[in-house]
Write a sequence for this structure.
């Protein structure tokens, strides 16, 4: 998705109409996004207090600030996920990023911080897609560079604190394999060029890689893309996708395709856009380093940028400010504190002080600097610990134990194992204990043609599966025979 | 390619203009294809006697009837392939089939018989693509059925006599992997929707899988799609593609993309269309079993179909026939004998006798039946011997020895090995002795970003490569240590 990498800031649209697509976000005449209108247009729902309360109750966790303060404000069928979860049904999380820039800015961290919270609250597995293919197709970027950026960005994602025991990170180029490709094909067959043009704004000048790409972002919403995690049964797991609301069109398409390819419609939990440093209608741009705070910025850079560039709702003179108070509607320091300050009481106090004029612009900026600096320093420390071996551990397609990815994890994550790691999936890599398809060849259900039977299932095995097992047995026997021979020789030599 | 599976027969176009695309073939007002016009329009070249003589000289083989009788009549840069070969340069062959039907008809065998001859004459490796993905996207076919048909059709292809030591057959769905996908992406970025619409006739109602498909057929023209065969150097091998001329648009697109992605333009050798049983302007259709001879037909079916349905150039009465002679321009028995009768002298005699009226329609049909029957019986016998294990052998992505695929092969092909076989490629499967990229990061050359260095190369290794090797070494050492431990235990137990 083009804007996964570049969380769009709002800007006024010349025509006065707001435009929100995965590639363009422009506010209405006043430069602002009318989120209520967006929810209405897209046909998604607003997250209400009752739903938040249900989430808190079933997870036993206090809602994340992004949730309780309305940054993640819209959804599709999140209530159904919660209902299913209340009944003991399993689901997994799917999010992603388009790796087109070297360093991430604060806005890029929002979905990952929130996803980590969701994962820890619900204790479920997570897949994170890095769309190096998409970045190559859309940007003036070499494939080798897109692939390198995918690994670099993965380090920042891992630094957000994910656990490798239930988190799989993949680059599309690395992972592309039969089970993934099967889903891409099935989804692609459901969408015409005209439909894709309507959803994504393609034109005759779009390259055919771009036109063919959306199913690649849609596919990970179906668990049988990942037999090494979830087995081969598309009906076995629901999926919940945390993302910014501009990605909604991708997943509307995915949800339309879902019943036709025999899968659950993925549920969505959608965020507002992160406001840019220079003001809500400005842009955070990699070409202008003063437009955003990056995760690589030093404490001095953070302080300088906030003081110089953070758009202020303060008044022209101290006298006027004391009289009218700061304008919370436009003040970026206030808005960012709402994202990153966990302490509700302290936040309320700051808001009251600043809004009443008791607190000056320089003072609220100081609060923001003091909030951001330790957070970014901690991120940098965490990232420094993410070695190549740790990245390999998250990228590894070694089959997992299905059950072990759900519920409480005991102790620390294991150290990355030594030895070569494969990043590519396959039909033969199937998680142990994964659910097996209930009925083969169901109506309109093509989810069962991935071919490889899940290990440990009690379904009748196909001919080719039986053959494969027989062959594996033969190989194992041969190996054993060879080992025995070797041992005998060694024994003879030892005597 | 939509017609790889369904070698198109010619039919009159209502507009009177001939149309030849990978999906539609219609002759001009008279129902016939004007091949000279086609060569001119497409911008390819005619194969002349001098080029055939050069091929015979450099290979030391008499030209195949399809070549010396002009069935394979057009080319692109075939002369350059021959020149390079004369200088000792290597190349590989690439052909394919769209697996949409259960049984192949005679027209389907043409490219494979000819490709086998090319392979044996030039002693080079061959890759055969089965586009199960394409058939799924275009036809009302389940993916599982397209995949099954790919394996079934592979048996007929193998029965044409290919040698597994230098022939790799793959289904797109099975093989889809990083090195393949890298080439698909690079080609896709070079082609706009408008261009693809011009070349392939896509419309707004085409599904986005169809729009995105052409690069998947183009990619195998680049050797680094197959590191397990050819290594990772796109510059190391030229490619020659035997195909019917309706596939020319695919490979025009491929040739346009080639320099932009750092590869050789593939050369082409192109055939006319195989005439349908009921006459050149009829259609061979799977829904009408009397329209073609299938490789599954019994001798009785062959005899009956030829006698009943083969369009005859004979005259209405014996008297008229004796007087005017048979019409060789339209007689299907005569045309088919030109394809399948190897003996030039006998063929000439038949042509003279039939054309002069000395031979009657029933008699030339008898000649055809006697020519076809043993050929089809032999095909059926050969196909019966193609076990699943043999198919696996051709599909296997186990790395080959590069050099061993060129030049004379000694002895018979080995029996298929036991044990599980992987059909999916990967960056880590690299042929031994394969050429390595000469210079990294050359101008416009993205052929070197596949990542995995070829084994045995003397190029400086990348950091990650060195790391991988170190890891592999560690693993090998661990294994050795374990084996030694086991042996010691066994020795102890034996004492």
């Amino acid at each position: 998705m083009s804007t996964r990498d570049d969380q769009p800031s709002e800007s006024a649209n010349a025509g006065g109409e707001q435009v929100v697509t995965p590639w363009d976000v422009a506010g209405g005449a006043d430069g602002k996004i009318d989120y209520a209108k967006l929810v209405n247009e897209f046909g998604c729902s607003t997250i209400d207090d009752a739903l938040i309360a249900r989430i808190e109750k079933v997870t036993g966790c206090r809602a994340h600030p992004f949730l309780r303060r309305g940054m993640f404000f819209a959804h599709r069928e999140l209530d159904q996920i919660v209902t299913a979860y209340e009944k003991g049904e399993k689901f997994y999380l799917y999010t992603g990023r388009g790796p087109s820039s070297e360093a991430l800015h604060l806005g890029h961290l929002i979905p990952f911080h929130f996803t980590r919270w969701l994962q820890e609250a619900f204790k479920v597995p997570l897949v994170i897609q890095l769309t190096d293919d998409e970045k190559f197709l859309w940007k003036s970027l070499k494939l080798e560079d897109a692939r390198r950026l995918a690994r670099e960005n993965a380090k920042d994602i891992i630094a957000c604190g994910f656990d490798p025991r239930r988190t799989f990170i993949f680059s599309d180029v690395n992972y592309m394999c039969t089970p993934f490709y099967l889903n891409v094909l099935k989804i692609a067959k459901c969408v015409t060029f005209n439909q894709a043009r309507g959803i994504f704004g393609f034109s005759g000048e779009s390259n055919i890689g771009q036109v063919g790409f959306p199913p690649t972002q849609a596919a990970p919403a179906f668990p049988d893309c990942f037999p090494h995690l979830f087995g081969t049964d598309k009906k076995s797991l629901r999926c919940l996708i945390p993302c910014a609301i501009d990605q909604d069109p991708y997943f509307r398409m995915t949800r339309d395709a879902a019943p036709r390819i025999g899968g659950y419609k993925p549920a969505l939990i959608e965020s507002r856009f992160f406001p840019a440093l220079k003001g809500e209608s400005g842009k955070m741009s990699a070409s202008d380093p003063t437009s955003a705070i990056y995760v690589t910025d030093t404490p001095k850079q953070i302080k300088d940028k906030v003081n110089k560039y953070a758009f202020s709702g303060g008044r022209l003179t101290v006298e006027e400010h004391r009289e009218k108070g700061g304008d919370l509607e436009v003040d970026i320091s206030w808005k960012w504190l709402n994202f990153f300050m966990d302490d509700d009481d302290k936040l309320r106090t700051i808001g009251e002080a600043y809004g009443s004029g008791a607190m000056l612009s320089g003072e609220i900026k100081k609060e923001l600097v003091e909030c951001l600096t330790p957070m970014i320093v901690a991120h940098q420390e965490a990232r420094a610990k993410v070695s190549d071996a740790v990245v390999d551990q998250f990228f590894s397609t070694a089959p997992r134990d299905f059950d072990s990815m759900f519920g409480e994890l005991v102790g620390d994550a294991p150290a990355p194992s030594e030895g070569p790691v494969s990043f590519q999936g396959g039909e033969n890599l199937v998680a142990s204990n994964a659910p097996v398809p209930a009925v083969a060849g169901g109506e309109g259900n093509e989810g069962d043609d991935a071919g490889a039977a899940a290990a440990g299932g009690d379904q009748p095995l196909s001919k080719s599966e039986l053959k494969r097992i027989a062959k594996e047995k033969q190989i194992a026997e041969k190996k054993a025979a060879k080992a025995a021979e070797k041992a005998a020789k060694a024994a003879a030599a030892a005597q």
Notes: Chain B touches chain A through 71 residues (CB under 8 Å). The longest strand of chain B covers residues 91-97. Chain B has two domains: 19-277+396-434+462-486, 297-384.
